[in-house]
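hi! just following up on the protien thing from before. the input was this:
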Amino acid sequence: MHLLDPAPFGRVLPAMVTPMESDGSVDYEAARKLAKRLVADGADGLVVNGTTGESPVTHMEEKVELVKAVKEVVDVPVISGAGSNDTIHTVRMTEMTQEAGADAVLIVAPYYSRPSQEGIFEHYRAVDEATDKPILIYDVPGRTGVHIQLETYRRLAELPHVKAVKDATGDIAGAVRKRMETGLTWYSGDDGLFLPFLSVGAVGVISVIAHVAAAPMRRLADAFDAGDIHEAQRLAVRLAPLVQALNGNGFQAVMAKAALKVEGELDDTTMRLPNVGPGDAELERAENGMRAAGLL
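and the predicted 3d structure came back as:
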């Protein structure tokens, strides 16, 4: 018996941090090492150049080189963030990361400008025309300031390359109808809603805590898939303190690097402004969450 639909991009996908040297330059060797370790721990897909990867402050050539570096060392799907609130720039990033070897692109709804639903649709249509790889819609109204409406989802699903959604709306009831009426593959974009989203038809999660918890998250998905709901619930409860520790203050990129530092997987936690790398308080918060989740 299998309760879950196939997951074309993986079930547990860390939204990977971008390791940096102390001078703020991208550390591609550390990125290769981290990508290999995440896959060894149970990740079966990776997202690079996302918000947790500090995409607002990395540049085109760095995004391209990061895709190449990670693709060199893993044999799981590598999805690259390529979104912006500038459609022309988004198209160019899509073209470049696709050429670099990305297996799919994650396109955030255009933020800050707060376009109309027609503007959102045209933004994605421009990207669709520029790629031959799958597109994942990233719906995160808390960061973008825009809500993608059901009718827009219906139209987006008709575009030939739009295949999946990273849903960070927190709206589980809305996800049921959107998924059923579009046929798109659904991913939870919230660690704390991983199990509830699986229960309404999602196939996996694009995750912050998977930097240090890929193995138990994979076991959670496997337990649900096998119909062992009680075991899936037990694992969700076990991971709850880590979810709160890394996501609760809203600084996911900072806290992901803090957790990797505590684990001993990341020597340097330098970040580019306006993010400030984790200090003692963030490291303690990460360590406490990891201990409470039984990971230390």
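The CA atoms of residues 34 and 265 lie 7 Å apart.
The mean pLDDT is 98.
cheers
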